[in-house]
From TrEMBL, chain A:
Lineage, broadest ranks: Bacteria, Pseudomonadati, Pseudomonadota, Gammaproteobacteria, Alteromonadales
Family: Belongs to the flagella basal body rod proteins family.
Protein name as annotated: Flagellar basal body rod protein FlgB
Localisation per UniProt entry: Bacterial flagellum basal body
Assembly description: The basal body constitutes a major portion of the flagellar organelle and consists of a number of rings mounted on a central rod.
Organism the protein comes from: Ferrimonas pelagia
Gene giving rise to this polypeptide: flgB_1
Primary location class: other
Alphabetized InterPro entries for the sequence: FlgB (IPR006300)
Keyword annotations from UniProtKB, A to Z: Bacterial flagellum, Cell projection, Cilium, Flagellum
UniProtKB/TrEMBL annotation, chain B:
Flagellar basal-body/hook protein C-terminal domain segment(s): 91-135
All copies of domain Flagellar basal body rod protein N-terminal, residue ranges: 8-31
Top-rank taxon, per record: Bacteria
Organism in which the protein naturally occurs: Ferrimonas pelagia
Main location: other
Protein name: Flagellar basal-body rod protein FlgC
Location relative to the cell: Bacterial flagellum basal body
Assembly notes: The basal body constitutes a major portion of the flagellar organelle and consists of four rings (L,P,S, and M) mounted on a central rod. The rod consists of about 26 subunits of FlgG in the distal portion, and FlgB, FlgC and FlgF are thought to build up the proximal portion of the rod with about 6 subunits each.
Keywords: Bacterial flagellum, Cell projection, Cilium, Flagellum
Record bears the keyword Magnesium: no
SUPFAM superfamilies xref list: Phase 1 flagellin
Family from the record: Belongs to the flagella basal body rod proteins family.
Length: 116, 138
């Protein structure tokens, strides 16, 4: 019986990659929190989950979108610092979660290999 | 994975914020600088930030930041009537800089906070990368 490693690890490898990419986009927002005219951007997780095929391995098909600010500022910047910081740390936490799931998968495989 | 880009973005942000702190330091140091004419008077320096979009290896775009230039403030200069001052012109006026100390202090705090945000960003990316390195370890 052949084990397809991509299928065995499920969606978690892809979500892990997504979390790093999103963290890059959010850090761009944080860096440009005071740049006039900068439009905050984000990646859509729901959209990734909709079209994800776990058997296909890591697909890097992420949808970028501009954020709708609650209160636009006069200089055209749409970064809301507090919210971006919250998103950044939540994203980092979600990364750790995906990592934990991935670790559990690997441990399961290891148990199966060793026959314990 | 684009950990490298996160470090680059945070680095660019720290760079711009320290340049901004630099201008704040110059402005505060010259807040009370006197001059004999409007042309030679000190005018507050203001950095202008700009986004630099950089394409990563796999086609994504990351948003770095840089200082596009430093402009001099257009705020009116302060003229004081001090005939005994060595810098006084023939009408007895001395021209002082247009630095607003309160505004500069607020700017300094904002720059410091932004710098700390970037430092946190690096620390967070660091811990993410570190736990990724331990993937599969029991």
């Amino acid at each position: 019986m052949a084990i397809n490693l991509d299928a065995a690890l499920g969606v978690h490898a892809n979500t892990l990659d997504f979390r790093v990419e999103r963290s890059r986009v959010l850090s761009g927002n944080l860096a440009n929190a005071e740049t006039p005219g900068y439009k905050a951007r984000d990646l859509d997780f729901a959209q990734l989950m909709d079209r994800l095929d776990p058997a296909a391995g890591v697909t890097r098909d992420y949808q970028m979108a501009y954020r709708n600010p609650h209160q636009p500022s006069a200089d055209g910047n749409t970064v809301e610092l507090g919210q971006e910081q919250a998103r950044y740390s939540q994203n980092a936490m979600d990364f750790e979660t995906s990592l934990t799931f991935l670790n559990m998968n690997i441990q399961g495989l290891q148990k199966a290999i060793e026959g314990r | 994975m684009s950990f490298n880009e996160i470090y680059q973005i945070a680095g660019s942000a720290m760079n711009t914020q320290s340049q901004r702190l630099n201008t704040v330091a110059s402005n505060l140091a010259n807040a009370e600088a006197a001059a004999s004419s409007e042309e030679t008077a000190y005018r507050a320096l203001k950095p202008v930030f700009q986004t630099v979009y950089q394409q990563t290896k796999d086609g994504a775009v990351s948003a770095n930041v840089q200082v596009a230039g430093i402009v001099q403030s257009e705020a009116p200069l302060e003229k004081r009537y001090e005939p005994d001052h060595p810098m006084a012109d023939e009408t007895g006026y001395v021209v002082y800089s247009n630095v607003n100390s309160v505004q500069e202090m607020a700017d300094m705090m904002a720059a410091t906070r932004a710098f700390e945000t970037s430092a946190d960003m690096i620390a967070r990316a660091n811990s993410m990368q570190q736990s990724l390195l331990k993937l599969g370890a029991l």
